[in-house]
Amino acid sequence: MSKPFENVRKPLAVSSIAQLGLKMIHRLSGCTDEEVRRALQSAYSDFCRLTSCFTNTQEIEIEAGETEYPVVPYTPECFVDSITRVALNRRILKAGRDFTISTSPVVTVTIAERFVPEAYTAEQLAARPELMSRQDEKSILRVTAIELPRLNSERAPRWFYDKYGEAVVAGALVKLFGMTNKPWTDGVQAQHELVRWENYVTEARLRGIADDHSTSGCGALSALDTSGLL
User: Fold this and answer.
1) Pair type for strands 55-61 and 221-224
2) Which residues is 196 bridged to in the sheet?
3) Banded model confidence at residue 59, pLDDT cuts 50, 70, 90
4) Within a domain: 227
5) What is the mean predicted confidence (pLDDT) over 164-178?
6) Parent domain of 186
7) What gap in Å lies between CA 177 and CA 167, rounded to an integer?
8) Which member of 98, 115, 218, 225 lies 3.0 to 4.6 Å from 208 by CB, making a disulfide possible if both were Cys?
């Protein structure tokens, strides 16, 4: 099996969603930091699930004789939820016919053997030098995946924090203001925050649809596998 994708690029700048609590706590008299934190974690997870904002395409070099290619998350504290597209060079592959996906122990794309270059021995290459050019031909597997935060995760890329932080705040406030029999319970304010939340989600989903033709998705993530060079 091919080695899992290894991020050898500059690591993502990461922020804690919990920091957004500083924008909220003064509006929630009597609410504890822990309750705010749990609401933020829940809203963060909901937003990512509803918008697929952590969509990225990994580029993996096809290895001679190798059909299996693990796909690991690029975003901190996330897991690969689904594979939306698999392409080999410029060809879109068809699920079931050209590739299959397994999920244990890690998400793995297995491509049909007809797409895999043959592995030649040193003796074969010495006897037939023309085979060298075939071995040097590079094929790139492009796997587009949707990632979601793990349970209780609150570490997010800095770009997400800057771009969608207010959306997460709105979602958390919907949950908190909507609680019953709490000092901070406020049904009117919960409805106001719900409108804001739905607008943020709709905007992010529309942006994702507009970017669907690209390989980086609405999260604008791109990852290049260079493990074969190590």
Assistant:
1) parallel
2) none
3) very high
4) no
5) 97
6) 15-220
7) 15
8) 218
Residues 97, 58: Cα–Cα separation, whole Å: 21
pLDDT, tens only, 2-27: 555 544 446 788 999 999 999 899 99
C-alpha distances in Å from residue 202, one per residue of 100, 207, 219: 32, 9, 15
Euclidean distance between the first and final Cα of the chain, in Å?
Answer: 16
Give the total number of structural domains in the chain: 1
Domain assignment of residue 21, yes or no: yes
Buried b (16+ CB within 10 A) or exposed e, 99-129: bebeeeeebbbebeeebbbeebeeeeeeeee
| Angle at alpha carbon of residue 167, lines to 174 and 42, rounded to 5° | 55
Distance CA 194, CA 168 (A): 11
Does residue 8 form part of some domain?
no
